[in-house]
Amino acid sequence: MQGAILLAEENKELRAANEKQKQKRTRSRKQIPAEEGLSVQEASQLITELVEADEAPPPPPRRSPSPGLQPPR
Question: What are the C-alpha distances in Å from 63 to residues 2, 17, 56, 70?
C-alpha cells in the first residue's frame, strides 16, 4: 500500500515536470531585430506586427500559367 502511494506521488511529480518541459518547448523564441535600444512603444508596435503576420491566412496556391502541364494522377 505504501509502495502504491509512493508510486502515485512520483507519477504526479513526473507529470508536472513533463508539463513544464512542454510549456518551455512551445514558448516563442522570436527575437525583435533592432540595432539600438527600443522604446516601449516601438517594441509593442513590433510585437503587434509580428503577431498579425503570424495570424494572417496563407496566400491561396498559385496555378500554373499553362493548363497543359498538369502533374500525373
Answer: 67, 48, 21, 10
Q: pTM higher than 0.85, yes or no?
A: no
Q: Is residue 68 part of a domain?
A: no
With CA atoms as reference, report the closest residue to 47 among 61, 34, 65: 34
Task: Give pLDDT, residue 13.
Answer: 96
- Is position 71 within any domain? no
Residue 21 falls within a domain, yes or no?
yes
> CB of 43 within 8 A of CB of 32?
yes
- Domain extent, residue 24, equals 1-54
Q: In a 3-state reduction of DSSP, which class is residue 55?
A: helix
Residue 69, domain member (yes or no): no
